């Protein structure tokens, strides 16, 4: 009896580990594939088999084309501007809103709460929003990328749930010392909520860095293009001029097609690496933050 | 004390209450002001903008000068050949995602919860969460590269001596490509919330089950699963409430005119016809139809959850 149970537990563990390993490989391989392909010799990559287990040949040529591409650099700088500004705005609004909504009941609080919650289930939709933003004069401006969609109600509710776990006694003693709500927020709540604020900041940063939709809807001026818009042209529309292939052509690259493929992979690496580099360091924060903040749902 | 004083004093009128509240809580009101303004300008004004769904909207005439046409926009959408195509594709993709994509993170979380080897668990988590951090543009280009005629999947098929499949141009391949790649992108990230719920289960329940002679599978079935049922219910209600909505971003990046037949959903129809062909009134009406249906589904799912004894959303 005991023997057989131990046996079935062992089988369970082996099968479990096996499936998890396969899934992990399935998530890892595409990323490794892109990395290997970007460092491969473009010509060997283009003509050989597509199954890569290691870079085929070795070459930095694709990267040197990407690094010489002014489109990438301008888009990079634009995206950094959009990400920092919109994250600052979204984070600031989330902290303020979360604090006010986590207070003990005061007149108007229920109204504020419903106002926020309703937007999670109902909105104006793409076209009505676009037309209103057009009236505001935001279309084709830097501000469209900073303001539109910078707030996220889910993130605010996460901060709010976390704030609610902070004991009242702390602020009561602060109130005795004459602190008002403003001081209580910045001196007590924010310092105690670093894990959840880090998580929410990460969410805002990643969402904006990866946001293609808002840029695609509101921007037509090429000087304002975000990284994702440029990436779309290079990777999916196959626009070789934007990809900086004219540099390759003037450099006398005989195998234009081969280079254009390798350049795509190098572009992916250059555009994705910053986010993937930050992520492992913040990971311990976000699992913790989700556990503390999202259980309430 | 408080009771006595409120009895002695006359009940204050609404005006007095209002100024009293302002005087007492002005810091909080001031703090909420920017949040209020943001929501008003960027969420509520667009809701008023829905009026253009009932207008023959012309940009030059604006919200107030355009001609009112009643339900004409709705009628012309439902009379067009695209209505059925968009609705069918939206529902098919949503339901397939619900059937296969919804259970996947639950199963993954339950599996991760059984792993006792910490470094292995950490590795699995770090890597399976990763696709969530890669942009949709990059993801779509990776997906299209992998399933292209010269891509790795067809290369494997060729090596095995099987006929290759033209995933990118065969409309019938669109649903599977979309749904399977969707699971791959989101299964790890989706499992976090269930892992959080699992970690909140009282360990004594597992101990009691062990004493009763339950093996791992039985504990999983009788302790873990019921423990995360409230989380599952809430996420299921949310998912059912968005059945009429398939995000446009991934489809806009993945589809092409050859696959419109199976890939064009309501949101991509709105994007294409609204923004690129300037049919503002029609597409706003379509969007309103979409969100109305979603709202009804959400409320129905919430009611059903409460009827079967689960905690609902509201």
Question: How would you briefly describe this protein structure?
Answer:
By secondary structure, chain A is mostly helical.
Outline the structure in words:
- The complex is a heterodimer of chains A (about 300) and B (about 325).
- Chain A is mostly helical and about 300 residues long.
- Helices cover about 75% and strands about 0% of the residues of chain A.
- Chain A starts with a helix and ends with a helix.
- Chain B is mainly α.
- Chain B has a two-stranded antiparallel sheet.
- Chain B starts with a helix and ends in a 7-residue tail after the last helix.
- The interface between A and B is large, with 87 and 100 residues.
Topology readout:
The complex is a heterodimer of chains A (297) and B (314).
Chain A: H1 2-39, H2 42-47, H3 61-67, H4 70-102, H5 109-121, H6 126-136, H7 142-147, H8 153-164, H9 168-176, H10 181-192, H11 194-209, H12 213-218, H13 227-236, H14 245-250, H15 256-294
Helix pairs in contact in A: 1-15, 3-15, 4-8, 4-11, 4-13, 8-11, 8-15, 11-15, 13-15
Chain B: H1 2-8, H2 14-48, E1 55-56, H3 62-65, E2 67-68, H4 72-79, H5 81-101, H6 103-113, H7 118-129, H8 136-147, H9 152-159, H10 174-199, H11 203-211, H12 216-240, H13 248-254, H14 260-263, H15 266-276, H16 280-307
Antiparallel strand pairs in B: 1-2
Helix pairs in contact in B: 4-16, 5-10, 6-10, 7-10, 8-13, 10-12, 12-16, 13-15, 15-16
How can the largest sheet of chain B be summarized? 2 strands, antiparallel
Mean pLDDT across residues of chain B: 88
Structural class of chain A: mainly alpha
What Rg of chain B, in angstroms, do the CA atoms define? 26 Å
What gyration radius of chain A follows from the Cα positions, in whole Å? 25 Å
Strand content of chain B: under 5%
Structural class of chain B: mainly alpha
Series of secondary-structure elements of chain A, N-terminal to C-terminal: HHHHHHHHHHHHHHH
Number of domains of chain B: 1
- Going by CATH, the architecture of chain B would be Orthogonal Bundle
Averaged pLDDT of chain A: 85
- What's the CATH topology name of chain B? MetI-like fold
The span between the termini of chain A is: 42 Å
What is the name of the CATH class of the largest domain in chain A?
A: Mainly Alpha
How many strand units of chain B? 2
| Helix share bin of chain A | over 70%
Strand content of chain A: under 5%
Q: Kindly give the count of domains of chain A.
A: 2
CATH superfamily of chain B: MetI-like
Strand/helix succession of chain B:
HHEHEHHHHHHHHHHHHH
Question: What count of helical segments of chain A does DSSP give?
Answer: 15
């Amino acid at each position: 009896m005991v023997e057989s149970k131990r046996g079935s537990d062992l089988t369970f563990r082996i099968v479990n580990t096996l499936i998890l390993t396969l899934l992990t490989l399935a998530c890892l391989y595409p990323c490794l594939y892109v990395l290997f392909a970007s460092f491969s010799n473009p010509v060997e990559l283009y003509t050989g088999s597509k199954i890569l287990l290691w870079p085929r040949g070795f070459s930095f040529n694709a990267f040197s084309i990407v690094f010489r591409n002014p489109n990438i650099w301008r888009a990079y700088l634009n995206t950094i501007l959009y990400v920092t500004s919109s994250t600052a705005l979204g984070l600031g609004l989330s902290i303020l809103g979360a604090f006010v909504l986590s207070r003990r009941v005061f007149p108007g609080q229920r109204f504020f709460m419903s106002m926020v919650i309703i937007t999670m289930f109902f909105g104006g939709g793409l076209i009505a929003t676009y037309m209103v933003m057009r009236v505001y004069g935001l279309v084709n401006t830097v501000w469209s990328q900073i303001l539109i969609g910078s707030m996220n109600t889910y993130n605010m509710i996460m901060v709010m749930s976390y704030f609610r776990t902070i004991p009242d006694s702390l602020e009561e003693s602060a109130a005795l010392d004459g602190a008002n709500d403003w001081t209580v927020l910045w001196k007590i709540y924010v310092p105690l909520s670093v894990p959840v604020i880090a998580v929410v900041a990460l969410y805002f940063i990643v969402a904006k860095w990866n946001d293609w939709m808002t840029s695609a809807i509101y921007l037509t001026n090429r000087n304002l293009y975000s990284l994702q818009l440029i990436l779309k042209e290079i990777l999916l529309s196959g626009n070789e001029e934007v990809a900086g292939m004219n540099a390759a052509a003037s450099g006398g690259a005989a195998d234009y097609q081969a280079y254009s493929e390798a350049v795509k992979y190098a572009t992916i690496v250059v555009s994705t690496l910053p986010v993937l580099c930050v992520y492992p360091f913040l990971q311990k924060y976000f699992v913790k933050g989700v556990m503390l903040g999202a259980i309430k749902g | 004390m408080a009771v006595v004083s409120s009895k002695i004093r006359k009940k204050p009128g609404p005006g007095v209450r209002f100024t009293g509240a302002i005087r007492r809580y002005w810091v909080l009101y001031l703090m909420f002001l920017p949040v209020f303004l943001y929501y008003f300008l960027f969420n509520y004004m667009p809701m008023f903008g829905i009026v253009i769904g009932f207008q023959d909207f012309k940009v030059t005439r604006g919200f107030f000068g355009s001609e009112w046409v009643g339900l004409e926009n709705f009628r012309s959408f439902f009379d067009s050949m695209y209505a059925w195509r968009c609705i069918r594709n939206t529902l098919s993709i949503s339901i397939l995602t619900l059937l296969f994509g919804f259970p996947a993170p639950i199963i993954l979380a339950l599996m991760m919860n059984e792993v006792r080897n910490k470094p292995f668990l950490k590795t699995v988590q770090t890597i399976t969460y990763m696709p969530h951090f890669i942009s949709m543009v990059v993801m779509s280009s990776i997906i299209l590269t992998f399933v292209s005629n010269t891509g790795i999947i067809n290369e494997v098929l060729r090596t095995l001596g099987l006929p290759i499949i033209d995933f990118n141009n065969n409309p019938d391949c669109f649903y599977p490509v979309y749904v399977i790649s969707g699971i791959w992108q989101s299964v790890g990230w989706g499992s976090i919330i269930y892992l959080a719920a699992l970690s909140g289960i009282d360990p004594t329940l597992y101990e009691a089950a062990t004493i009763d002679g339950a093996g791992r599978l039985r504990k999983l079935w009788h302790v873990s699963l019921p423990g995360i049922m409230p989380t599952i219910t809430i996420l299921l209600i949310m998912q059912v409430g968005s059945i009429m909505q398939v995000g446009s971003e991934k489809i806009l990046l993945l589809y092409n005119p050859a696959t419109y037949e199976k890939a064009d959903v309501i949101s991509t129809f709105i994007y294409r016809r609204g923004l690129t062909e300037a049919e503002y009134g029609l597409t706003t009406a379509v969007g309103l139809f979409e969100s109305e249906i979603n709202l009804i589904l959400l409320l129905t799912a919430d009611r059903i959850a409460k009827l079967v004894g689960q905690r609902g959303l509201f």
